Amino acid sequence: MDNIFTATFFVSIFASTIRLATPILLTALGEIYTQRSGILNLGLEGTMTMSAMAGFVCAYFSKNLFIGFLGGIIVGMICSAFMAFLSITVRANQVIAGTALTILGIGFSSFIYRIIFGIQKLPPQVESLTKFDIPLLSSIPYIGTIFFQHNLIVYLAYILAVFSWIVLEKTTFGLNVKAVGEHPRAADSKGINVSKVRYTAVIIGGAFAGLSGAFMSIAYMNSFSDTMIAGRGFIAVAVVVFARWNPLRAMVGSLLFGIASALQIRFQAIGVPIPNQFLLMLPYLVTIIALITVSKKAEFPSAYTKPYSRMER
């Protein structure tokens, strides 16, 4: 217990927070595009699992981490394109379609992985993505360790948060995405192709989720397990609501989950006398509390989860 309140402890916690928040942030950023267009994708858990498997397999056989990440992104886009087809073209119930996609993704990824690698006592691994220390900044005491000693995907996630805010708030594409999510018929009357914009937004969300899944298997765990996503897809959906569909606020929500995860891992490591089950609950409990406190103020897009057809009035 004497090891808790030390500089080393807090530096370790905050550095882990930045890293553990990365997959949640990436997935939440993609889901912001999706939900802004009026589509709810609850299949993120399955998409991330499929992408984690695909990214690992591609990296393992190619011996190239870049190909692994690319494979994860492509699979994420394919999974989300299927979700877009069900939601936009077939006009299926989005909650049911997303839930089914999650179940399918988790089961199918496990099936494919076992076909390729079989059942082994020691699971195959890939070489981890190396840490990139930013020159000069990484040598700053404490601050450098927390913020500037991570792998490239961690830095990219936070850059993408700013980039996504610019895209959604300052570009024509972002305006179109919000228009089809708020009033698709009015957008259609102005010449905006509602289906095309929604398909694009959902597939962009899939690309982000694919990168997040590949991050988990290649840059975080260095191996694959069908349980490795552990609810992060659903937490990302909660973070989107917490952030009120703002990419910059999504960073705050992701960091809340990150610090809760970092604390439970660290507490277990130093032997804090709290039952292990309660520590494992901590990240999800924090997410639920944060969501409850802000969800009442959240204003969902007007056409949220509502299929659109030109033929209906």
TrEMBL record:
Membrane disposition: Multi-pass membrane protein
A GO term for molecular function: transmembrane transporter activity
Location (main, coarse): membrane
InterPro entries: ABC_transp_permease (IPR001851)
Keywords, in A-Z order: Cell membrane, Membrane, Transmembrane, Transmembrane helix
Cellular localisation: Cell membrane
Keyword presence, Transmembrane helix: yes
Top-level taxon in the UniProt lineage: Bacteria
One Pfam assignment: BPD_transp_2
TM helices/strands, residue ranges: 6-30, 42-62, 68-88, 95-119, 139-168, 199-221, 227-245, 252-271, 277-294
A GO-annotated cellular component: plasma membrane
Name assigned to this protein: Nucleoside ABC transporter membrane protein
